[in-house]
Design a protein that fits this description.
The protein has one domain. It is built from 9 helices and no strands. The protein is globular and about 55 Å long.
């Protein structure tokens, strides 16, 4: 009499259908590298090369190095366009549209508002507690280290540009890259929880400052949860914009 086959045990929750993207972790790593390093490096090298033969480019590069708001804004837009271009190339390769990275379907307005308010409050409380705890436990960790850049220091003089560069553009780009592209690719391999954790670690590291990395790691977890629940990255973009607006308002007052 033949022995019955042992039942297959499920080790993790099944991935929602909308997160079954056609690309894999390796391609997610390529997009992360493009966003964090490759696109900025390529643009920087192009500027250096062109500045040797085009005087106007040389002047632009000098102003950029000096932290001028206008050139910094143009550079940020170019980096964003480059990162979007890499994502677009993969969408074309797999013959899918932007809805696959979460630019999809209308969401329930009231449900979205409840999530926005509850998650924003929860995120602020949890991140504040975590940062305070790390400040007490980790020697040299400064939870209150200021985040400064060319836009926050010149916010009063260039308010419109600063809002576009800090509040509007980054959430659209980062939700597309990290939640729409990277998170589901990792989750396919590791499951939802580890997909959220790993993609949020990468998201935190992309901000290059210890306390901001911790803060954005928690934000990444919240935004992954929101994407899973609402099946769209658009509400996450709104929450991300609200967070950036609050941070921008605080920084610009200093």
């Amino acid at each position: 009499m033949e022995a019955e086959a042992a039942p297959v045990r499920k080790h993790r929750r099944a991935l929602p259908e909308f997160l079954n993207v056609p690309w894999a972790m390796g391609e997610a790593a390529v997009v992360a590298a493009a966003f964090m390093a490759v696109v900025p490096l390529v643009l920087a090298l192009a500027l250096v090369g062109l500045s040797l033969v085009v005087p106007a480019v040389g002047q632009f590069t000098k102003q950029l190095a000096d932290g001028a708001v206008g050139p910094s804004f143009v550079m940020d837009l170019a980096i964003s366009a480059g990162a979007f271009g890499v994502v677009w190339a993969y969408l074309r390769r797999y013959k899918v549209g932007w809805q696959v990275v979460g630019w999809r379907r209308p969401v329930n307005l009231w449900k979205t508002l409840v999530y926005l308010v509850a998650l924003l409050i929860g995120f602020v409380v949890v991140s504040a507690l975590l940062l305070a705890g790390l400040g007490m436990l980790v020697h040299g960790f400064n939870p209150n280290q200021a985040q400064t850049n060319d836009f926050t220091t010149g916010a009063a003089q260039h308010l419109s540009i600063s809002i576009i560069a800090l509040v509007l553009v980054p959430p659209v780009l980062e939700e597309t890259v990290f939640r729409g592209f990277i998170f589901p690719a990792i989750a396919k391999r590791t499951g939802l929880v580890w997909g959220a954790v790993i993609s949020s670690v990468i998201f935190g590291l992309a901000h290059w400052q210890a306390n901001i990395s911790v803060y954005t790691f928690v934000l990444g977890l919240v935004l992954c949860f929101m994407y899973v629940k609402l099946k769209s990255t658009v509400p996450g973009m709104v929450l991300h914009m609200l967070n950036n607006l609050l941070a921008f308002a605080a920084l610009s007052q200093k």
